[in-house]
Amino acid sequence: MDKMIDKLRKTILLCSVLIFVGFSAYAQKVKVYPAPKEIELSTFFKVSVASQNVPVYKTKIPPSTPIPRLNPNRGDFGLASVASFDMNDAVTVSVESPEEVKSVKILPSSYGIKPVFKGNTVTFELNHPGHVTVEINGEWHESLHILANPFEKNIPDPKDPNVIYFGPGVHEVSQLTISDNQTIYLAGGAYVRCVLPEQEDEIEIRGHVRKKPTFILEGKNVAIKGRGIIDQSSIPKKVRRYTILAHKAQDVTIEGVTIFDPSHWTIPIQSCDDVHVDNIKIFGWRGNADGVDITSSRDLLVENCFMRTFDDAVVVKSFGGYGEVVNNVHTRKCVVWNELAHALSIGAEVHENISNVVFEDCDVIHDKGRETALRVYHCDHAVISDVTFDNIRIEEARRLISCWIGKTRWTETEERGHIKNVTFKNITATSAPIDPTLTGFQDGPDWKPYIIKDHASMELVGYDADHIVEDVVFDNVVLDGKKVEAKNVTANEFVKNVKFK
Asked: Which residues form the signal peptide (predicted)?
């Protein structure tokens, strides 16, 4: 009898261990961070992952009607829903919609996700971290964004004196500057509201006095990272304020955080070396709410990001007065939704030479604006060379490709510049649907209107015989299912040596 009881105890113990291990392994597949109770969440969608409920935030986005003006009515906006979690294994995601689901589109299409829907519920599998947009019953505007992050690595110690730690909950920050060996960390569940300081707090940037950015990274070995949210919506509409400025810094890490409603450029990187921007998520709707602006810097990698921006998403520039060239800039594995300007681009301001720039393995899921999805846009006097756009998938675009030299409202120099050695390779794109009510603007100082064509336009435009666009390669560029040929690209007489492969 004692032996039977002992055996039964061992069996129960073994089952308990197995159950515990099973639950632990299951729990470690996903991390969900509770939302602070003070934050009003979206009530439109309900999201769960691996049977855990995920908070759904809401944030402003541009209006649904395209606005082909330089200064849009900033009072118009929509609301997007945003759910975020961490994963380290394949998971099942469930979305409950307020209406019966009749159709579902999950972008980027290149992820190959096949949703299953019945009644009001959509389910699908995510096999790896990545950021997807769920569009139900054709509603593309106020859609659901699901941000699936990898598990964090190298989480800093909150007791480290060099770590400025924001734990779960709501925090207010007016201005914070860090320098050598310091890190700003936003834990999952942290929600940082950005506010203006009580007294004027300004900084001189490129000869202009501006409100100090909310976060400034200076010096060597500096970082801002985590899984928290930075919200700029408390900044008044008329205030132009950067969110995160990396300025004259070296060995910089900007990783993991989500940014709502930036009031100006979200992440400008100016006069920096060795910068890694990884897994940043940006939702902007105001004018000049760019994503990542790389200026007068070298050795940068931007990867694994999601950007829904009103203005440029990832853009490379070089300002005057710095005397610094831009070299070795790499953007990869990003998902971009651009509403007005450019998805992946160089320019407009180019005062010092820019070379060795690569955009690769990115998805542009929407590009409905007046500008061009992939662009080298030169309004000043320097040389832009050795630029590659490779393996880019564009779900829709009104203007697809442009290399352009000329004068615009952004021009600051008398002399014009030069563009050479630009490759467009393995590009697949679909033209955006025609909107007969929409006109855009031609490039130039007067912003003359143009009519949207029935296919995404491509152009090569030099300025004069001494300021040309040359050595451009179209290698397996496919638009609307057809390989692009010379007849599909508009070029003026100041363009030389264009090849189609």
From this structure: none
User: pTM value?
Assistant: 0.90
Task: Specify the 3-state DSSP secondary structure of 20.
Answer: helix
d(CA 311, CA 70): 10
Which one of 101, 117, 150 terminates a domain? 150
- Asked if the peptide bond before residue 456 counts as cis, ω within 30 degrees of 0, the response is no
Separation CA 318–CA 387 (nearest Å): 15
Measuring CA to CA, which residue among 92, 86, 142, 89 is closest to residue 116?
A: 92
132 and 169 in a common domain? no
For residues 345 and 482, state if they share a domain.
yes
Of the residues 102, 133, 150, the one at which a domain ends: 150
Range of the domain at 79: 30-150
- 386 inside domain: yes
- Inter-CA distances, 178 with 132, 183, 287, Å: 33, 7, 28
Backbone angles phi, psi at 171, to 5 degrees: -130, 150
> How far is 320 from 296, CA to CA, in rounded Å?
9
Number of domains observed in the structure of the chain: 3
